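Weekly puzzle thread! Below is a chain. First person to post its structure in C-alpha cell form gets bragging rights.
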Amino acid sequence: MRIEIEREDDGRWLGEIPVLPGVFAYGATAEEARAKAEALALRVIADRIENGEPVPPETRRMFAA
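Winning reply:
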C-alpha cells in the first residue's frame, strides 16, 4: 500500500493512503504521520471486511501468505 507523505504549511506532516479514500492522518513528524495513517488504514480495512464491503486489491497483498 502506498502512503503519500507531505508537509503542510503549518509544519505538520500529513500521511494519506490514496486507495482508501478518507484515510489520512497528521503527525508532528513524517514517521508519526505514516504510522497513524497505517493504523487508520488497518481499522478501515477491518471494518470493511466485517461489514462485507469491498477491499481494494492493493490491500489484499498485506494479508497474503
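Puzzle host: Confirmed. Bonus trivia for everyone else. DSSP finds two helices and three strands in the chain.
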